Amino acid sequence: MSTTATEPLITGDEFLRLHGDDKRVELVDGQIVRYPMPGMEHGVVCSTANYLITAFVRENRLGWVMGNDSFIRTKSSPDRYRGADVCYVSYSKLAKDAGAPKGPLPVPPDLVIEVRSPSDRIGEMTDKAIEYIKAGVTVVIVLDPESESLAVFRAEEFPLRMHNGDELTLPDVLPGFAVQVKKFFE
What domains lie within the chain, and their CATH numbers? Predict the structure, then answer.
């Protein structure tokens, strides 16, 4: 019988101290998980999603939009910190006059967007979306560049699948926002 040594579990505080500035790394149940660099297509879709959300949020002065360098605590004991590709937090949850806090987000975002990388399995992306919802995120969108489609996750609802010709609206988190799904992949 052989045994494999595993890395000791670390706390969220240790993770943030040691890896708070690292990219493509998350803490999952006390274990550090590193992700491969996904490539240009992923980066372009992430940037486009960030642009579409940021343009609307800034024009309407609604809140904060961040990229994947902002950690979100999704679970404790053992700790989990995720880095969403894009996330939005309304000023009603995190006041503008307080300034952008240092460290992980102190509240769950209203919206999280994840872009499926070539190495991601669909089941893993679904599990991650559900994890965000359980942590208090109102809406999670998973963008799939390969199929040019997306899935919208909300608590106590089945995921809504949308394709190129569909229009995405988010009245519960971004009232008035509307964009053709194809815009995320242009």
Answer: 37-185 (3.90.1570.10)
